[in-house]
Amino acid sequence: MGDGSAAEHTADILDAAVQVREAARSATSGATGVGTVLAALSEVMEYDHASLTRWDPLRRRHTTLAGSYPDDATAYIETRLHHDPVFPVLRSPARGGFLAQ
Question: How far out from the chain centre does Cα 15 lie?
Fold first, then answer.
């Protein structure tokens, strides 16, 4: 068992992030389901609910690929979140997002 040093903690986080990336690649290739991405993400950070969505430019809405939110929250994320005034702030580069849709 490690000593709990900052370097060890950083290495654990990086390892978990690599696992999230690998889960995403595996899901993208169809080898696993997208739920594996959320499972890997839970190793990086604790969360009560999570949602993995993609923007559908033809339908002008988000499509949930995997998620644990209640149905009403998922419906909001898919159909109305992109109209919320806070949405551009959440997508800003300063918060780790991007602005192009």
Answer: 17
Query: What does the alpha-carbon distance between residue 50 and residue 74 come to, in Å, rounded to a whole number?
Result: 10
What is the rounded CA–CA span in Å between residue 60 and residue 17? Answer: 30
Q: Both tokens of residue 34? A: 């997208």
* Torsion sign, CA atoms 24, 30, 31, 32: positive
Structure tokens at 10: 């950083």
Residue with tokens 């806070």: 86
Rounded to whole angstroms, the Cα distance separating 42 from 49 reads 10
**Tens-digit pLDDT profile for residues 37-80:** 888 888 878 889 888 888 888 998 998 888 899 999 999 999 99
pLDDT of 100? 44
The reported pTM is 0.62
- Tell me how far apart the alpha carbons of residues 54 and 94 are, in angstroms, rounded to a whole number: 20
